[in-house]
Structure formats: C-alpha cells, structure tokens
Design goal:
Number of helices: 18
Oligomer: single chain
Helix content: over 70%
Number of strands: 0
Number of domains: 1
CATH architecture: Up-down Bundle
CATH class: Mainly Alpha
Structural class: mainly alpha
Radius of gyration: 20 Å
Length: 334
C-alpha cells in the first residue's frame, strides 16, 4: 500500500534543490508559455487570474507576510541590510554609469546605450531576492526586499537622468510599494499569532507569481537582444552582486554569509518597460528604446539564472548555507 505522505513525484523537493528553484523553474515555464502559446492563458476566469494576472497581488501578499516577520529585534539589521543592497546595486552603479555617459554620450559603449545600462543595471529582482534569501538567508536579508521595492522599475533611471529633465520622480509609487511591508511590520509586532500564521507564505506564493511573471517574458525578445544583452546580463551578477557582497563583508561584517549579496545581482522583470517609460518622458531617447528593451529582457532571464547559482554555490562552499539554516531553526524554536 502506498504511503499517503510520500510524494509520487517529488516536484517541490526537486525545485527546492535548485538554487532559487521555487522561482526560477516556474519563471522559465511561464516564459515558454508566454513565448509559444501566449493566448493559452487568456481563457478568462480563475485560470487567467491565477496563472497570468496574479503576479502583483501575490508579490504584495509576500511583501506583507515578510513584514510580519520583522520584529523590533530585527528592524535595525533589516534597515542596515537594505541600505547596503541599495548602495551596491543602485547608487554606486548608477553613479558609474553617469560618469561613463559624460564621456561616451547617450550612445553608450559597444552597442549598449546609456538607457539600456540604467534600465538593466540599477534595479533588482525583488521576487528572486526573496526566493534566494528565503532558502539561504536570515530574516534581516528577507526584510531587505525593500531595496527591490525602491529600485524596481524606472525610479533610479529617472533619478539619475533627472538632470536631463526626464519627468517627475514617482515618490507616490515608491510609497505605495512600501505600505504593505509597513502594515506587515505593524501586524507582526502586535500579534505574534499572525506572524506565525504567515511564516509559510513564501513557499506558497513564490512559484505562482514567478509563473505569472514568466508569461510576460517573450523569449524572442531575449534572442533579439542578441549577444550584447546576454553579455550585459552575465556581467551584471558578478559586478553589481559583487558590490553588494563587498558591502555585506566589510560594512555588515557577515563573514561567510556575505555571498548572499550576489542574489541582488539581477535585473527586475519590470525593468523591461523602463526604456519605453524614459522615451515617453524624453523623446531624445526614443531611438535607443527598442534595442534597450530587448537587451533588458535578455538581462532579466540571464541574471535570474546566474545570480541564485552564484550565491548558493559560494554560500555552500563557505559552509554558510547549513549554518544559517540551523541558526534560523534555533531562533524559530526560541
């Protein structure tokens, strides 16, 4: 007689063994559907709602649940970690791109425009960060998703190009991204039972919102981005993730746990729309928008593959992954 508690096909276990697999596998599957059968999920009702349109509400739920896990004891480390991620992933790279633009102009370098650089480099995939830190990180790392809420989309691109008159900085949009987290922090600190109830949320929602995000990635755009987009994606993880790694090691003094910083070396899926947003604000960038969009799409997929692999490999090599898991279990029992 079969054991009712035993999986016939261990899908969840297999996905969990892949670095960032809870997000990466559904993301790739969704992108295959979005590329080869884009209309398959448009039949309406619950099918479309769950598998195509659910990304934003499920990410919002994850953000709220993450906030409930941030207690007064962990709040300081969360803000410090968030600052380090923003510094290494957005601020320093953005300033370097500004300096490069002063020398080469908007055309950029080696077929990659300044618009493409800003769009791909200065933001990070918050969902992937939550997936990787949920598997290998601590509560302070998961709470640092705030960096992804701040740098997601066109915010930093518009900020760094603001001197060119590229429209208003969307502070209201940034505030809207932070409100679910703030409410989660409040609820988690006044009611421990809610904090405990929402602890399993990441494993539940990450595969579903990852699939929905994937349906918006057309692999033909990744291909059209060509070698320049792929090379840019390959460089983003070690360079920007490396800056966050250095912040972890020398500013946060996380020692063997510092490689978790490489999980920030990604490009957000929402960044694909950034070139069009910038071009709408300043038509002088219109000539670069189409190529930049395809290059950014390539970066989204390449960094989603590379960042979790690099972070997990270095964490395991340092022996930090097992130590973090044991420490988190001990804290949960305390």
């Amino acid at each position: 007689m079969a054991d009712p508690g035993r999986s016939t096909v261990p899908l969840f276990t297999t996905m969990s063994r892949i670095p960032g697999g809870l997000m990466l596998v559904p993301l790739v599957l969704g992108s295959l559907i979005g590329t080869f059968a884009p209309g398959a999920l448009d039949i309406g009702s619950f099918t479309t709602a769950l598998f195509k349109d659910s990304a934003l509400p499920l990410i919002a739920l994850l953000i709220f649940a993450t906030g409930t896990q941030v207690t007064m004891r962990t709040g300081g480390p969360v803000l410090a970690t968030t600052g380090v991620v923003l510094l290494g992933k957005s601020v320093i790279p953005g300033l370097l791109i500004v300096a490069l633009g002063a020398f080469v102009g908007p055309e950029g370098i080696l077929g990659v425009s300044i618009l493409a650089l800003f769009s791909a480099v200065t933001n990070s995939n918050g969902g992937l960060w939550l997936a990787v830190t949920g598997q290998y990180g601590r509560a302070r790392d998961r709470g640092a998703y705030i960096a992804g809420a701040v740098n997601d989309g066109p915010f930093f691109t518009l900020l760094f190009l603001g001197a060119s008159g590229l429209g208003q900085i969307p502070f209201l949009a940034m505030l809207a991204a932070l409100i679910p987290f703030i409410l989660g922090v409040v609820v988690g600190n006044i009611d421990a039972q809610w904090r405990e109830t929402l602890k399993p949320v990441p494993n539940i929602v990450i595969p579903f919102f990852a699939f929905a995000l994937g349906t918006g990635i057309d692999l033909s755009e990744v291909v059209s981005g060509g070698l320049t987009g792929i090379v840019l994606g390959v460089l983003i993880t070690p360079l920007t993730g490396g800056l966050v790694y250095l912040g972890y090691r020398f500013l946060l003094r996380r020692g063997n746990e510092s490689p978790i910083g490489f999980a920030a070396g990604t490009t957000s899926g929402n960044a694909v729309a950034t070139p069009a947003v910038v071009a709408a604000a300043d038509p002088s960038f219109q000539a670069y928008a189409a190529t930049a969009t395809s290059q950014v799409a390539a970066c989204v997929l390449v960094t989603a593959l590379l960042a979790p692999l690099m972070a997990s490999w270095l964490l395991k090599r340092n022996g930090a992954a097992a130590a973090i898991a044991q420490s988190e279990d001990a804290e949960a029992r305390a």
